[in-house]
Amino acid sequence: MVHQIFVLLAALSCCFCCGTLAIENKDQHLRDLPCPPAEDIQPCVCTVIDSSTYDIEMDCSSVTTNDELASIFSKDFPYNGFFSLVIENNYDLTIIRQGDFGQKTFQQIHITSGSLQTVENNAFNSSYDTLREIDVENTNLFYFPFHELNLFTQLYRLDLQNNQLHGSPELTSLSLGYIYLTENPIDGIILNSLPLLDNIYLQSTSITLLPPGTFTDLPNLDYIHLGYNGLQVLEAGTINLQTSFNNVYLYNNDLTSIAEGALVGLKGGNLDVRYNQLTELAEAVFRPLMDDSVYVFASGNPLDCGCEIAWLVTSDTYMNLLDDDASCTSGQLVSELDPAMFDVIC
C-alpha cells in the first residue's frame, strides 16, 4: 500500500513538473514573439517594448560592420515591421548604406553617440511610409539626404543635433513638425513647403545672416530658436509668423540692428534678444510687438537710454512687457528710470 501511494505521488509530481515546464516554455515562446529568433540576429537584441501593441525594438548597438548589419536584416523574420531601431555608442559604423536594412521598416530610428559620418541616399527607403522620427545626434554626421525628406509621408520629428552638417540644408516636407539642427556648422537654412512645422532649433550653428523670407509662409510655426549664433542684423521680412501665440529666441548673438518689419506676426508670446549689441529698443520695431502682448527679454544689451526709449519708459503697459533685468550702459536698470524726466526733457 505504501509503495502504491509512493508511485502515485511520483506520477502526480511528474505531471505537475512537466505541466509547469510546458507552461514556462509556452510563456517564453510568447515573450519571444514577435521578435525573430535570438540566434538569427546576434549581436542585435530584439525586445517587445509594449506588450499591448507588440511594438518591437531592434537594438544593434554592438554591430561592428555594415555587412554584418545587412546580413542580419536580409534574413526572413516573422514580422518585417519594427517600432524602433537603436544604435548607440557605436564607434565602428561610419556609414548607413542603401540596402543595409533590406525590406524591414521602422517607425523610429535612433543612432546616437558614435562615429557615423554618412547616411547614404535611400538608406531608409524601406521606411518612407512608416518613419515618424529620425534621431541621429552626437555623431560625426556630415552628410544626410535632406532632399529625400518629402518622401517620408509620416515623418514628424527630425533630430540631427550636435553633428558636422554644413552648408545650407534645403528642407521640404508635408509632415515635419520638429526640426533640430543645433550645434552643426551650417551657415544657412532654406525652408520650403513645411505646413506642419511647429518648432525649429538652430542654436550654436555658423549662421550669421538670415535672408528676408527665411521664416515666412510657415503657417504652423510657433517656436524659432536661434541663440548662440553670429547674427548681426535682422532685415525686414525675415520673420513673419501666422500663429496666435509664438516665441522667437535670438539671445547671445551679435545683433546691432533689427529693421522695422523684421519681426512680424508675433502675438502673445516671447521675444528673447538678451546678450546682443542693441543700443536701443527702436519704437518702430518693439512697440507693435508689445501692442500684441509680446514679452521682451532684453537684458545684456548696451542700451543708450536716451529719448529714443521714452516711448517705453513712460508707459506702464509697455514696461510690464519688458524683463526687469534690462539695463542701460550706465548700469542703471530700465525699470528704475524716472518717467517724469523723459516727459520733461524729451
Automatic annotation (TrEMBL):
Keywords: Leucine-rich repeat, Repeat, Signal
First and last residue of the signal peptide: 1-22
Pfam families linked to this entry: LRR_8
Stored SUPFAM superfamilies: L domain-like (SSF52058)
SMART domains in the cross-refs: LRR_TYP (SM00369)
InterPro entries in the cross-refs: Leu-rich_rpt, Leu-rich_rpt_typical-subtyp, LRR_dom_sf
UniProt name for this protein: Oplophorus-luciferin 2-monooxygenase non-catalytic subunit
Species of origin: Petrolisthes manimaculis
